[in-house]
Amino acid sequence: MTEFWVSSGHHLTRRSDAGGLLVTDELILAYLARPELMPPPEACAAERALHAGLMAQPRRRVEPHEIAALQDADARENWTFMIGFRDRLLAAPSLEAAYLGLVRDGSGGVPPLFLQHLVHLILRNALDGCDDAYVLRAAELFFRPQRASLHEGKLLLADAELIEAREADPHQSPLMAMLGQGPVTEFDVLTPDNAWSYWSRSDAHTMVLNLGSDPRSREALGRVIETWIRHLLGIATTVTPMAALRDADWRWYVGLDAEATRLGDALWHGRTLPTADQDRVLALFRLEFGADAPVRGDLAGHPVYLLMAQGADKVLRLKPQNLIAGLPLDPRS
Predict the structure, then answer these.
(1) pLDDT, tens digit, for every residue of 77-95?
(2) In what order do the strands lie in the sheet with 315-316?
(3) pTM: predicted TM-score of the whole model, two decimal places
(4) Cα dihedral across residues 63, 65, 68, 69: positive or negative
(5) Quick one: which of 90, 124, 85, 131 has its CA closest to 108?
(6) Exposure string for 237-272, b = 16+ CB within 10 A, e = fewer
(7) Closest Cα partner for 153 from 195, 211, 218?
(8) Whole-angstrom Cα distance, residue 221 to residue 226?
(9) How far apart are CA 50 and CA 43, in angstroms?
């Protein structure tokens, strides 16, 4: 089996008989090694003692007074978040169950970075054994913000963090900028000819997804959505890319990101989207449930439409939790 996404830390977990990921001491130690939690040279004795104690016993109970004793306010905030997150992971039977709990009960107090990493881990588990580079590259949208750009008539998605780093590079070629060739042109666009190279660079996130003119990219994203819902909810779905929403049976929709939710709300209330807003829509999908899915009675047999859009800064920030909280499922199921 070809390895991918080593940076997810999946090798630090164990898989349960039910297929979910179990929290291990090694995984908690990896969180404790993050720079936000490593005591700096000027850290107080209480902070150094707290970190050392947890490195020796990652699961030990941390009392509120231990965090209150930290002199640095940022350190107190970071440790409050970390211990709250750790305790939620330990209380759940699997990482998947912990994520579902965060989505359903509210993720307040959990930094977005931790949620993204949890999605990264869960998807690595759900896609274990996948040999389709298009599917894996499309799955990166779930936990890595993407910068959208048009190049030679193609709608391209590139890793936003890498693009920002290139733009901040003082050695960036002014000639490239003058010719209208942004940093995205420095990376390889995923094609069937170079897909074999994805495995060696899956943790570098350096491949660009042609979402506009390569139908394989949108189809792959549909497969990821199906996998995500099946893995977390045990529900079979079929997700099909769409070119437009004309004549759609518009009974239910899910915005895959905050911008798409805003645009979907406008459409839901019968408003016509300005051209600028229409241009922000990056993809549309039709989701249909399997025959045994516990769908609300008034929506049984009807599709759900999925919208995906870029923000004003041309960045796509997918919210995979919307696919859990936003589906019209019977609450009694």
Answers:
(1) 999 999 999 999 999 999 9
(2) 188-189, 207-210, 154-159, 146-151, 315-316
(3) 0.92
(4) negative
(5) 85
(6) bebebbeeeeeeeeebbbbbbebbbebbeebeeeee
(7) 211
(8) 9
(9) 11
